[in-house]
Specification:
The protein is about 0% helix and about 30% strand. The protein is mainly β and about 70 residues long. The radius of gyration is 13 Å and the shape is elongated.
Length: about 70
């Protein structure tokens, strides 16, 4: 699936990601992930968690209207 990532992958685009857990221990939910960081494992399902990019958003520090 395009724009879907697993724990340990590097975040390429900052934005809102839908989190899909393995073994159905938790409902899907949204989180903010920042480019350059790594998608973390879930404390319950470990590396079985997946992150799907819902909406890309540029980090405010990298936006041309907010640079010093």
């Amino acid at each position: 699936m395009v724009d879907t990532f697993k724990a340990g992958d590097k975040v390429k685009k900052s934005g809102i990601y839908s989190v899909i857990h393995d073994r159905k221990h938790a409902d899907a939910h949204d989180v903010t992930c920042v480019a350059g960081k790594v998608f973390p494992p879930c404390s319950a399902c470990g590396d079985g968690v997946r992150f799907h990019l819902e909406r890309h958003a540029k980090h405010v520090g990298h936006h041309e209207q907010f640079k010093p």
